[in-house]
């Protein structure tokens, strides 16, 4: 079965033959429309090829479309990618506007390089790799466990000295049950006083504790 490109070549050959006989573009289009129907090229395309064939030697005419170089990727060359990557690795909180000013390219191109070419995404205002390896995931899990453990003991030390109507928080299981938010497995270090303030919110009631990521 002939492809769409083969069909175009056939129609251009048909135009070349009729143009050599002196037929007008309108007449050629009418005859082609009758034969090819909906698959016929437009009348503007017929007129363009008639002008090409009448002004060139048939032995030098090329019916196939020539390859085009396309648009130059001036802002996504290796130099820009490496520079953007180095800036992000040096400062995970760097803004796209700052990268654009430093690299001398538009903010839109910076966004394309960061998200599509380099594959970064933003988590808690930090640029992090889109894909994490098994070792990286295990390392983050261990870090979160250690920080949660330290946070619990710091909270216990303060809660043992702080009491509202005799209410004390001294149960580890209760503490972990009250931690309901832990986005992206990232727990930032919090001061003991801040944790205690959220652990004891009202008299005779231990409320939900939020560990923000």
UniProtKB/TrEMBL annotation:
It comes from Plakobranchus ocellatus. This is Histone-lysine N-methyltransferase SETMAR-like protein. InterPro entries: Transposase-MT_Hybrid (IPR052709).
């Amino acid at each position: 079965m002939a492809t769409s490109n083969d069909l175009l070549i056939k129609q251009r050959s048909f135009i070349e033959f009729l143009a050599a006989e002196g037929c007008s573009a309108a007449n050629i289009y009418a005859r082609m429309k009758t034969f090819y129907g909906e698959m016929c090229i437009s009348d503007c395309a017929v007129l363009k090829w008639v002008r090409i064939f009448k002004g060139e030697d048939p032995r030098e005419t090329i019916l196939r479309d020539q390859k085009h170089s396309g648009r130059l990727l001036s802002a996504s060359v290796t130099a820009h990618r490496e520079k953007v990557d180095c800036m992000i690795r040096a400062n995970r909180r760097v803004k796209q506007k700052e990268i654009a000013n430093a690299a001398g390219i538009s903010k839109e191109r910076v966004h394309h390089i960061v998200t599509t070419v380099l594959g970064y995404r933003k988590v808690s205002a930090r640029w992090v790799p889109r894909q994490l390896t098994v070792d990286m995931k295990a390392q983050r899990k261990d870090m979160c466990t250690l920080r949660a453990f330290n946070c619990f003991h710091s909270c216990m030390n303060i809660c043992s000295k702080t009491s509202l109507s005799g209410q004390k928080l001294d149960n580890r299981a209760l503490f972990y049950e009250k931690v309901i938010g832990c986005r992206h497995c990232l727990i930032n270090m919090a001061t003991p006083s801040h944790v205690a303030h959220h652990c004891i919110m009202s008299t005779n009631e231990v409320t939900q504790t939020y560990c923000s990521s």
